[in-house]
Design a protein that fits this description.
Number of domains: 3
Strand order of the largest sheet: 2-1-3-4
Radius of gyration: 22 Å
Helix content: 55-70%
Structural class: alpha+beta
Number of strands: 4
């Protein structure tokens, strides 16, 4: 099977999945128009929608839309910071992170999106506006490993 044929098969599979879902809910014609608009979505928008789906929060979509409109209308300068820790943050750490981030972003209001990821072992990872600061124990151990490997000329520790 050629790559063109495989691609055509994938396209048909996706289209049929969407059609079946829309028919099941009695909204097929409307879904075609919505899909036309969805083609313009950025990966970030699609990722947000996926996360909302995974967390069964799609029922909140209308309220999310209203909040987004209000933020845009009011030119909200709040900086969203993704914070990853190995264990949930307590109020004290949360306040410290907000204070540090506000300083880093010229006093802008900070909105924290917290993630718990045990595999980082400890420490913290901050991501905002395309910047990433990884102060996790896992990253520090990887840096130590690289340094030791380089010390032993081609050796692998």
């Amino acid at each position: 099977m050629t790559s063109k044929a495989i691609e055509k098969q994938r396209i048909e599979k996706y289209a049929r999945s969407l059609l079946d879902a829309a028919r099941g809910e009695g909204r097929a014609p409307r879904d075609v128009q919505q899909l036309r608009h969805a083609i313009k979505f950025s990966p970030e928008v699609l990722e947000t929608l996926k996360r909302m789906t995974d967390e069964s929060d799609l029922t909140l979509l209308e309220q999310v839309y209203e909040d987004l409109r209000n933020m845009l209308d009011n030119e909200d300068e709040t900086v969203t910071v993704d914070v990853t820790t190995a264990v949930p943050m307590d109020a004290s750490l949360r306040a410290e992170v907000r204070k540090k981030c506000a300083k880093d972003f010229d006093g802008a209001p900070i909105f924290l999106v917290e993630h718990v990821e045990p595999k980082i072992l400890g420490g913290i990872i901050l991501e905002a506006r395309g910047q990433r600061r990884d102060a996790s124990v896992r990253a520090q151990l990887m840096n130590i490993r690289k340094t030791l490997s380089a010390s032993f000329r081609g050796g692998d520790v």
